[in-house]
Amino acid sequence: MTIPGSGPSAADPPAPVLLTEPAEGTPDVVVDLAALDRAAGRIAAGHGPIAVDTERASGYRYSQRAYLVQVRRQGAGTFLIDPVAVDDQVDALIAALATDEWVLHAASQDLPCLADLGLRPAKLFDTELAGRLAGFERVALGTLVELLLGYHLEKGHGAADWSRRPLPVDWLNYAALDVELLIQLRDALESELREQGKLEWALEEFESLRTADPAPPRKEPWRRTSGIHSVRTPRGLAAIRALWEARDGMARERDIAPGRVLPDSAIIQAASVNPQDEQALLQLPVFKGRAQRRLANTWMRALRAAAALPKSDLPDPAPPADGPPPANRWADKDPEAAARLSAARSALSKIAEAHRLPVENLLQPDLVRRTCWQPPGDVNPDSVTTALRAGGAREWQVGLTLDALTTALKASAG
Questions:
Q1: Which domain, by its residues, includes 340?
Q2: Could you tell me which residues belong to the region Disordered (predicted)?
């Protein structure tokens, strides 16, 4: 395949060719075990890397499960698999996908719901991450396909309700196109990374992503309620927590996205106004709607339970932070740490620019902050290497940043 341009510095590529449907036509959706067995057999008989993608219904459903799994492999074609229709019995697919490298775009978004189905790659290539390491400023799938392969993908259904059945044909085309050119894109990016001397870096990143442990549940997820910063009293925070927990339980039971049960803005408003009865609650804008009127008793029970809590059970307005304070407070709290962070950020920015990398891919910002806030007792290359590895830095990152970070950690306010 001829690739227009040679990478991030390529100029004036030919006008892209619009793709509105897969070259082989819209695939039928696999909805029974017999069809899944046939699809798995064809995938296993194919050759080379396997393009994989999923579609979820995050804005509509509570669960983050996959409602569609897209698979494409050379010599096999494209398959759209409905895991719900086969009761998540995808053993045949697990075996078929174990034969070679998976190619995904923004793999961290898809790997958790694939793992829930028992689908885990033995080897991984992430085209979005590859694009970042190769220095492309924009790394959306459509952007990279257009720049490197000369095609414009028909988009527009990524945020759709993929739990809907039957799925419209234009949605199926959209889903199939997400894997249509993924293998060619992988090959183009591999060539670009090899030319830049970054392929080994990318392979380390892919393996780290593939083997990463699932993120632990947040200790107090209700504190992520949008607008919570406007409520500062312990009693008000208790009201937010009670409403959030009532909403979360209802959303989980009904498998509805929490924001569709009750918007965050309504939780904040109710906690701020503190209505004393259902009539007062129903005067608030969101609660005037018919759906909320039916649930008014539920919300008032939560508010009354929060109002009745003893002071000892109220949430702390400023809970202990897991890590250093916000960087904008360092100058007052610890001027030497602020000096270290400033020196580190400056040095890392220069390294990232020299290698055409996003600085956050050179070294995770959280690791930089933690290391600068609490550096090793004896700052030297060995101790800094140990700290970086303990924080999850890959070997290529340690190699690029060790000298500069060691020097920065010796910086002081004086």
A1: 327-409
A2: 310-332
